[in-house]
Write a structure and sequence with these properties.
13 strands; Peroxisomal Thiolase, Chain A, domain 1; four-stranded mixed β-sheet; beta-ketoacyl-acyl-carrier-protein synthase III activity; about 35% helix; single chain; transferase; alpha/beta; five-stranded mixed β-sheet; lipid metabolism; binds acetyl coenzyme *A; globular; 2 domains
């Protein structure tokens, strides 16, 4: 089987910052409530940029950082819960935007596990020799599918995109893979369909009137998130000769600081082991793990040979993790 490495990352978030304070003007909430319950202080909200716009910008950065050309990309996998349209896929729109003319393109729906699922799928394609170079993107315009009158959900999410280029390599970069789904718990996090208009931007008066907004049972998702992080870390390490001490950072889905706090306690590690940037971006679903990863790369936190553990969990319910050697 061929070996696989992540050779470049990129991310993009919209310019508009919406603080907790600003949200307290449209729903009955406060900076104190949001930051103490979730760790989130602000998020980015798209003003007219669709998922494909943000995805294309993140993709171009990842391609540049990987030192490859768009024509070298054989496969584009785009994870999103908020595609621009049902047809064409957002992956095909991105292909055209970035001129990756030789790629086969498709979207996947795995909610907040999307980026990890995408890397997993791309890894399988490269291992079998079916493709040499793959682009994985996680991108969301969640502001379109939020009920901006529901304080239980609208304070948690943000918009953004992330991307990674994976390539066949002489050295193995994907050391362990963990994945699964539990459809029986699907009802705990739902979103029926993507509206044509963005209720945040298009009409402040009708912000809460969409019947296809995200719904969530926060307590069930909290329990699920903690369980998956703990179980995922244990399962991923089992397939290797490493222990948690050998892992430089755990890069989790950026949902909520308190989920991380509980998981860290159960794993017996410091919260510092987890890389978090949810204070700045909120929960960007399929984009979140990749935005955190690219943030780490930009801050020069990863050196060649470092081992990191990515872990995602989300609607479906879905979950997945990877141990990556940088
Ligand atoms: N501002 C002020 N008050 C609020 C807000 C808000 N934004 N949201 C809820 N409340 C109120 C509730 O109405 C409730 O009031 P009541 O007691 O008068 O009825 C009170 O706060 C407590 O509500 P709970 O739901 O019990 O609050 P909890 O402590 O469970 O915190 C939270 C809610 C933060 C969502 C928590 O359940 C959680 O962290 N869940 C994890 C889910 C998550 O992070 N999801 C992210 C998306 S899913 C994913 O990424 C996989």
């Amino acid at each position: 089987m061929n070996k696989v490495r992540i050779i470049g990352t990129g991310s993009y978030v919209p310019e508009k910052i919406v603080t907790n304070e600003e949200l307290s003007c449209i729903v009955d909430t406060s900076d104190e409530w949001i930051s103490s319950r979730t760790g989130i202080r602000e998020r980015r909200i798209s003003e007219g940029e669709d998922t494909s716009h943000m995805a294309s910008k993140a993709a171009l950065k990842a391609i540049e950082n990987a030192g490859v050309k768009a024509e070298d990309i054989d496969l584009i996998i785009l994870a999103t819960a908020t595609p621009d349209s049902f047809i064409p896929s957002t992956a095909c729109i991105v292909q055209d935007n970035i001129k990756a003319i030789n790629a086969t393109c498709f979207d996947i729906s795995a909610a907040c596990s999307g980026f990890v699922y995408g890397i997993d799928i791309a890894t399988q394609f490269i291992r079998t020799g079916s493709v040499k170079t793959a682009l994985v993107i996680g991108a969301e315009t969640l502001s379109k599918v939020l009920n901006w009158k529901d304080r239980n959900t609208c304070v948690l999410f943000g918009d953004g995109a992330s991307a990674a280029v994976l390539k066949e390599s002489d050295v193995e970069g994907i050391l362990s893979i963990y994945r699964g789904s539990d459809g029986s718990k699907g009802k705990f996090l739902t979103c029926n369909a993507v509206p044509v208009k963005n209720p945040y931007i298009d009409s402040k008066e009708t912000m809460g009137d969409i019947d296809n907004a995200i719904t969530m049972d926060g307590k069930e998702i909290f329990k699920f998130g903690v369980k998956i992080i703990v179980q995922g870390v244990e399962e991923l390490l089992k397939d290797t000769t490493y222990s948690l001490k050998d892992i430089k950072y755990i890069v989790p889905h950026q949902a909520n600081f308190r989920i991380i706090e509980s998981a860290a306690k159960r794993l017996g590690v410091s919260e510092e082991k987890f890389y978090l940037n949810l204070d700045k971006f909120g929960n960007t679903s399929a984009a979140s793990v990749g935005i955190a990863l690219d943030d780490m790369v930009q801050k020069n936190l990863l050196q060649s040979g470092d081992k990191i553990l990515l872990i995602g969990f989300g609607g479906g319910l879905t979950y997945g993790g990877l141990i990556v050697e940088w």
